């Protein structure tokens, strides 16, 4: 039990039996009242929003001599690394993460990966193997296969899929260690048949100095791991340096600086999506267990920052969930991080009915959607915009975060309106193959010649007519 002191009597809270109260916004959005809170949260959680700590601002002041906005920080880091390569990269590893590295120590030595694996908890390794297998099964089943059709005599049309040659994976490591992210990115890439996979993780105890991260990489056969994170890692992989060969695509989640850097280098390389601070909308009614709903909300808020929003048409469920959140925070290990995260990025919203909940959710386009109400599947299929949907009481989001099979790297910041979660299909490129024989050409030639004529492109027309 955490020792929290009551400000009045200085006894611990557990002793005075008083639950932690939390200042999570509670909003009555019935009768069509505009839920301004959702727009406010969306703005705060966007890559241009305020998800950077005051400490972060102090840090930029220290590094750049001025408290630059995050976009300006990322702009400068990317430009410096494109121009100066390793020199700028190592300088940023030092100034932003306090890591004294050189070109030789930037890459984790093979012996260190082996050692991490050899000393890892055997149960942990078995767990990694079982989960990798779940991910492999799902990602193989959904992988695009070549499609060939022969719509007319003498015509063969193919859509083929080719694995990418070399990709880079961002594994976060600022506030928590994520071996699960290694699994959820590397395994889909391997299923797709990617030739080379480089993993980057910040030079921290949660990143590339974390034994579990290194052991997971080794278990999956990843040999290229770099001690770098943030915008500098993204820029190094995009532009390449003497030490870090450039990649063709950068995937994986990260904080604001990672997200902005991925946006900035897009076009030079491909990126997956913007996978920023975790978010969940839970929709629940009186059939849900408030303690379970509370646990689901806390589980995404504990990413810190992480957003957790409950929408319900039941006042009693909202009240009971609020009480359960306070109670569970009492014993939660990361309550000191989770509570401010919920207060800044959470909300409990009362609506009129399911239809209003559906509309609000579609407009917010959450990364995760968890539905715990009557006819949950029906409501789930009526909602268009969500990165991943979890249906019913026995499917907490944590199953998707860790073990089910679909990747936990999902679109955040409202990008679920048009972006999809990471999958094996992100690591293949499609191309078409077109083949006609003489009959096929003869049957289509008049149409091609006519359209070429209309466009005034007579060389195009000739390239067909000359063959007839
Ligand atoms: N969507 C997903 O799939 C998913 C999965 C796991 C984690 N996440 C999210 O990823 C994020 C991880 O963030 P994190 O901070 O733990 O790790 P991170 O590795 O993404 O970021 C840490 C890096 O940020 C850089 N940085 C920090 N402050 C900076 C500053 N002021 N100026 C310039 N650079 C700075 C540093 O270089 C540091 O190495 C969390 O928000 C978490 O919720 C998302
Ligand atoms: N919820 C995160 C994705 O938004 C993934 C994760 C990793 N570990 C725990 N959760
Ligand atoms: Zn999570």
Automatic annotation (TrEMBL):
Family matches, as InterPro entries: Ald_DH/histidinol_DH, Histidinol_DH_CS, Histidinol_DH_monofunct, Hstdl_DH
One GO BP: L-histidine biosynthetic process
Chain segments annotated as transmembrane: none
The keyword Protein biosynthesis appears for this protein: no
One Pfam family recorded for the sequence: Histidinol_dh
Gene Ontology molecular function, alphabetical: histidinol dehydrogenase activity; NAD binding; zinc ion binding
Pathway annotation: Amino-acid biosynthesis; L-histidine biosynthesis; L-histidine from 5-phospho-alpha-D-ribose 1-diphosphate: step 9/9
Catalytic residues (positions): 367-368
Binding site for substrate: 278, 300, 303, 368, 401, 455, 460
SUPFAM superfamilies xref list: ALDH-like (SSF53720)
EC number: 1.1.1.23
Sorted UniProt keywords: Amino-acid biosynthesis, Histidine biosynthesis, Metal-binding, NAD, Oxidoreductase, Zinc
A single cellular component GO annotation: cytosol
Amino acids binding Zn(2+): 300, 303, 401, 460
Co-factor requirement: Zn(2+)
Cofactor binding note from Swiss-Prot or TrEMBL: Binds 1 zinc ion per subunit.
Reactions that this protein is recorded to catalyse: L-histidinol + 2 NAD(+) + H2O = L-histidine + 2 NADH + 3 H(+)
Job description of the protein: Catalyzes the sequential NAD-dependent oxidations of L-histidinol to L-histidinaldehyde and then to L-histidine.
Similarity comment: family membership: Belongs to the histidinol dehydrogenase family.
Protein name: Histidinol dehydrogenase
Organism: Rosistilla carotiformis
Lineage start: Bacteria, Pseudomonadati, Planctomycetota, Planctomycetia, Pirellulales
Name of the gene: hisD
């Amino acid at each position: 039990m955490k020792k929290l002191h009551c400000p009045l009597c200085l006894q611990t809270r557990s002793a005075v039996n008083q639950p932690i109260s939390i200042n999570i916004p509670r909003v009555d959005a019935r009768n069509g009242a505009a839920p301004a809170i959702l727009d406010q949260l969306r703005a705060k959680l966007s890559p241009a929003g305020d998800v950077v700590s005051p400490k972060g601002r102090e840090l930029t002041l220290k590094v750049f001599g001025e408290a630059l906005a995050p976009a300006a920080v990322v702009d400068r880091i990317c430009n410096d690394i494109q121009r100066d390569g390793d020199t700028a990269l190592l300088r940023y590893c030092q100034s932003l993460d306090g890591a004294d590295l050189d070109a030789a120590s930037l890459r984790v030595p093979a012996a260190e990966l082996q050692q991490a694996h050899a000393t890892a908890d055997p149960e942990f390794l078995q767990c990694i193997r079982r989960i990798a297998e779940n991910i492999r099964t799902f990602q193989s089943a959904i992988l695009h296969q070549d499609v060939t059709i022969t719509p007319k005599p003498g015509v063969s049309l193919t859509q083929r899929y080719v694995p990418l040659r070399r990709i880079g994976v961002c594994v976060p490591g600022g506030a928590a260690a994520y071996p699960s992210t290694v699994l959820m990115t590397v395994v889909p890439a391997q299923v797709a048949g990617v030739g080379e996979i480089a993993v980057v993780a910040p030079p921290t105890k949660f990143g590339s100095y974390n034994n579990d991260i290194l052991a997971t990489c080794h278990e999956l056969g990843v040999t290229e791991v770099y001690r770098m994170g943030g915008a500098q890692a993204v820029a190094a992989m995009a532009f390449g340096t003497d030490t870090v060969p450039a990649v063709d695509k950068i995937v994986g989640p990260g904080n604001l600086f990672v997200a902005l850097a991925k946006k900035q280098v897009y076009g030079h390389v491909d990126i997956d999506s913007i996978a920023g601070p975790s978010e969940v909308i839970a929709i629940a009614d009186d059939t849900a267990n408030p303690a379970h709903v509370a646990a689901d909300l806390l589980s995404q808020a504990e990413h810190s920052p992480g957003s957790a929003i409950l929408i319900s048409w039941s006042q009693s469920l909202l009240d009971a969930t609020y009480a359960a959140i306070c109670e569970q925070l009492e014993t939660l290990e990361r309550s000191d991080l989770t509570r401010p995260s919920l207060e800044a990025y959470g909300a409990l919203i009362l609506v009129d009915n399911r239809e209003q909940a559906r509309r609000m959710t579609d407009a917010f386009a959450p990364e995760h959607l968890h539905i715990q109400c009557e006819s949950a599947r029906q409501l789930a299929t009526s909602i268009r915009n969500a990165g991943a949907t979890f249906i019913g009481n026995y499917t907490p989001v944590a199953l998707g975060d860790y073990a089910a099979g679909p990747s936990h790297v999902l679109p955040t910041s409202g990008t679920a309106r048009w972006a999809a979660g990471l999958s094996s299909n992100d690591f293949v490129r499609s191309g078409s193959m077109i083949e006609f024989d003489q009959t096929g050409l003869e049957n289509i030639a008049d149409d091609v010649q006519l359209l070429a004529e209309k466009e005034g492109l007579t060389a195009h027309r000739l390239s067909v007519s000359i063959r007839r």
